[in-house]
Structure formats: C-alpha cells, structure tokens
Automatic annotation (TrEMBL):
Its EC number is 2.7.6.2. Keywords: Transferase. It is an enzyme of class 2 (transferase). Residues 146-205 form the Thiamin pyrophosphokinase thiamin-binding domain. PANTHER family: THIAMINE PYROPHOSPHOKINASE. Coiled coil: none annotated. InterPro entries: Thi_PPkinase, Thiamin_PyroPKinase_B1-bd, TPK, TPK_catalytic. NCBIfam families: thi_PPkinase. It comes from Alkaliphilus flagellatus. This is Thiamine diphosphokinase. One of its GO terms (molecular function) is thiamine diphosphokinase activity. Pfam families: TPK_B1_binding (PF04265), TPK_catalytic (PF04263).
C-alpha cells in the first residue's frame, strides 16, 4: 500500500500534490494541511492532529466530507506530522510519501526529514517531495532516475558512512567513506538518466533537485 501524508508546510504547486495523491492508496492529512486538500477537493481518509492550525472553513469541509478525525491534545510528545506517520505505519504500507514537509520553520523541516529515518528503519520506503526536492533515504543500494545535468546530493544522516559507491554521476565514488558533516556528497550531477547509490555501512539521505534542466 502506498500512503501519502500531507502536512502543513509549504505547498505552492498543487499539481505536485495531486500527482502524488493519484499514485497513492491512502491519504493522511496532518491538521492544517487540510487547506491544501480542500483546494483540490480531494478528501483524505483521515485527519490527525491537535487541530490547532486547521482553519474553520477547512474543518467544515472535512466534516462535510465525513472524514474520520483523530484529535490529540495540544500538549503532546509528537508533532502532528509524526502522529500522521505513526498512523501511516499502522496501515502496513510499502511506501510513505510526505508532501508539505518543508517550510519556513527550520525545526519542523529538519524534524520531518529525520522522520524518513524512522520510517526507513521499519523497512518501509520513505520519501519527501516538494516543488524543488525529492528526498529519500538508503542504507543499501538504490537506483534514482534523473535527467542529465540534474543535481543530486548524498548526505550521511546516521554518523560516518562506509563503502559509498556512486555510479552514473559526474563525480563517481567507489567504496569511499564519507564522514558525518562532510560536504563531499553535495551537488553531484547526473551524466546518465539513472544513478546508483550504494552504502555498505550507515545511512544516507539522497536529495534530487527537481527544478533544473
């Protein structure tokens, strides 16, 4: 099952949200993100959160659509996005894609990116998609489709990583170690329409920049 979590960061291009939703089987809305779904008139399967950021019109729309609402206290140990991820994990998903995870609040943006690690450790494919970035995570081998000249970065997220191999990119690596905090993997470029990223030990974020070429 492909699950989409829509959260209340910045979503400017509704077509991106729509395309992700159309390729998903289950939609979870985190609190104030209902305003984005309302613009598309696409009801989620459930709304979760403390309901402190959803506006009156969006909540009325949710109620009119008969959407299930799971409300939590304002004072809680998880963000609304993590609550939505927890509910997503209960659906036995094959993939969880988060839209709206990046915004002006750097703390929330970084926290949401770190949620990819939580999902990944459960053995589930995890992605964040917005107008500019497609972010995923791996501790083994993944193939990433792209366009020649498009930017891609590989960033350690779990400490130092060992045995990194990059193929199909302008700056290849073979069995190379990358320390946590190093910028070695930043701003590489596709030289083919597909890149392969392999890691022997550790976990990396793989960030493809989507507003180019």
């Amino acid at each position: 099952m492909k699950v989409t979590v829509v959260t209340n960061g910045h979503i400017e291009n509704m077509n991106i949200l729509k395309s992700v939703i159309e390729n998903s089987d289950y939609i979870i809305c985190a609190d104030g993100a209902a305003k984005y779904l309302m613009k598309l008139n696409i009801y989620p399967n459930i709304l979760v959160g403390d309901l402190d950021s959803i506006n009156k019109d969006a909540f009325q729309w949710i109620e009119n659509g008969g959407v299930k609402v799971q409300q939590f206290p304002v004072k809680k140990d998880m963000t609304d996005t993590e609550l939505a991820i927890e509910f997503a994990l209960e659906q036995s998903p094959s993939t969880i894609t988060i839209v709206g995870a990046i915004g002006s609040r750097m703390d929330h943006s970084l926290g949401n990116i770190m949620l990819l690690y939580k999902i990944h450790k459960m053995g589930i494919k995890a992605n964040i998609i917005n107008e500019i970035n497609h972010i995923t995570i791996t501790d083994s081998t993944i193939n990433v489709a792209g366009k020649i000249g498009q930017t891609i970065s590989v960033i350690p997220i779990s400490g130092d990583v060992k045995g990194v191999t990059l193929e199909g990119l302008e700056y290849p690596l073979t069995n190379h170690d990358i320390d946590m905090g190093s910028s070695l993997g930043i701003s590489n470029r596709f030289i083919k329409d597909r890149a392969t990223i392999s890691v022997k030990e550790g976990t990396v974020l793989v960030i493809k920049v989507c507003d180019e070429v």
